[in-house]
Amino acid sequence: VQLQASGGGLVQPGGSLRLSCAASGSLFRVTAMGWYRRAPGKERELVANIVNGGSAIYADSVKGRFTASRDYAKNMVYLQMNSLKPEDTAVYYCKARTLGPGYWGQGTLVTVSS
Asked: Is the pLDDT of residue 28 over 90?
């Protein structure tokens, strides 16, 4: 499974960004897709995850501001980020879960700063 994330950039506090992740390869193995992030000096953390056919779950820190979605026909996963805060600054990674190993995209940097 290969993942290609895009959509990061510099945004002011209170602004919005939409991240996209395209999946390809042995997609029949995928059971869930989601987003993680690693802020400077911190460990990688779950942002949102969607199991196949299910609803998204979110980290408490992003609930009400971020919305994750999947387009199964296009093999895409998205993260709509609204009301961004400086503490949302991080490298964002998409991940595909399988019954075996997980697969990571290359990461896309989101910087929230005025």
From this structure: no
Radius of gyration of the chain from its Cα atoms, rounded to whole angstroms:
13
What pLDDT is attached to residue 56? 95
Transcribe 34-101 into DSSP letters: EEEEE-TTS--EEEEEEETTS-EEE-TTTTTTEEEEEETTTTEEEEEE-S--GGG-EEEEEEEEESS-
Burial 64-84, CB ≥16 within 10 A → b, else e? eebebebeeeebbbbbebeeb
Residue 97: name the closest of 46, 63, 42 by CA. Answer: 46
